[in-house]
Amino acid sequence: MPTSPASSTTSPPSSTSPAYVPRALLSLHIRQPRSALANPSSRWHGQVNDPPVRNSQEAFQMEMRAARMVHSADSLLKLVSELKRTAIFSGLASLNENVDRRIEVLGQQAEGTERMLERIGQEAAASLKELEAHYYSSVVRSPSYD
User: Fold this and answer.
1) What is the chain's alpha carbon radius of gyration, rounded to the nearest angstrom?
2) Single pTM value for the model
3) What range does the domain containing 86 cover?
4) Is residue 96 part of a domain?
5) 24 in a domain, yes or no?
6) What's in the GO CC field (predicted)?
7) Are 46 and 52 contacting, i.e. CB atoms less than 8 angstroms apart?
8) Looking at the 3D structure of the chain, how many domains does it have?
9) In-domain check, residue 102
10) CA–CA gap between residue 67 and residue 65 (Å, rounded)
């Protein structure tokens, strides 16, 4: 299909076509990409894909991640400290209960031991009296020196 001479001229297409940029405007901004022409404020600021902007974005993201990690580590340390404190105090409470029970058991054993020693002493005293009585009433005693 042959092209007509009228179509080869640079007549502006319809205004709805986003690809049309007048030649005069292209010659003025030859170094700017089309996105810069569409958004004039981006001409003075770096583009998102420019290395300095990308580096600053990555640095900001790394800084935010580091801040989150520090905050998480601080929270974790506080949690561990609280768990240790709880373990110590609950451990001390149960330890105190165990000590009190052990003191009571040992006190009962001491009372039982004292009663047993008292009874053994009484039995020994009674046995000694009996032996003395038997010795003094016995015929065979040590010779007297009269």
Assistant:
1) 54
2) 0.36
3) 50-137
4) yes
5) no
6) mediator complex
7) yes
8) 1
9) yes
10) 5
